[in-house]
Write a structure and sequence with these properties.
Length: about 210
């Protein structure tokens, strides 16, 4: 089976959302992103020289990094026709677009600085001020749509859902965007997603990662 190296509540949780929603089985190797220690022994640096998740490892030992690509691979393995999007489907490129948007505009664009312990509060606030323009794009897009691609939860939603898992910790406020707020509640109340957030919150405490609080 394919292995996912997973640090609780981090972006590899988005990969787990995609796997759960798509019915794709993965072996999970938990790790502490603060110390880079793998639960199976050894260091994340041995798996990925950048010391980052998400990483998939295939049976033949080859690896796949970059969360957006990891999520895309996971969805490609789904036998659920409502979830998988084949490259011949015009929706495929919309999915890629939103995966890239989540990766660059939200994950790296906002979280990378706001969760960077060395950044001053002034720098963090300047980065937080970039959020409204991004939220307006989403707010307009979600007008009349339940999910990013319309009426079905796709792999791109898995990444955006994860953004909302951490946006509170990041003190990024999106409460004044009604479509975004309705979307947030819709995705976070999906049973598979709720269960994963709950178990990850517990694992985060057990491992004492201390990455997000405070
Ligand atoms: N380019 C990577 C970046 C992923 C990333 O930033 N992961 C964070 C967790 S959400 C991480 O591993 N941070 C630890 C570090 O950068 O040392 C991707 O797209 O997957």
């Amino acid at each position: 089976m394919t292995t996912l190296y997973h640090a609780p509540l981090t972006c590899s949780l988005a990969a787990r959302f995609a796997a759960a929603e798509g019915g794709v089985n993965l072996d999970i190797v938990p790790l502490n992103l603060g110390t880079k220690e793998l639960a199976t022994g050894g260091s994340l640096y041995d798996i990925n020289p950048l010391g980052q998740v998400s990483v998939l490892e295939f049976k033949d030992g080859t690896k796949l990094t970059e969360t957006s690509t990891v999520i895309n691979w996971i969805q490609s393995q789904s036998i659920n026709d409502d979830f998988r999007i084949d490259p011949s489907d015009p929706g495929y490129f919309q999915m890629l677009r939103w995966l890239a948007f989540c990766a660059t505009e939200l994950h790296k664009g906002l979280f990378r600085v706001v969760f960077y312990q060395e950044a001053t509060e002034e720098v963090k606030n300047r980065v937080r001020a970039l959020a409204p323009l991004r939220f307006e794009v989403l707010e307009n897009h979600l007008n009349g749509r339940d999910y990013l691609l319309g009426n079905r939860f796709s792999a791109a939603d898995a990444y955006l859902t994860w953004f909302f898992v951490l946006s509170g910790y990041a003190q990024i406020d999106h409460s004044k965007y009604p479509n975004l707020e309705a979307y947030r509640q819709r995705v976070l109340s999906r049973p598979a997603i709720r269960a994963l957030i709950e178990s990850d919150t517990q694992l985060d405490q057990e491992l004492r990662q201390n990455l997000f609080a405070g």
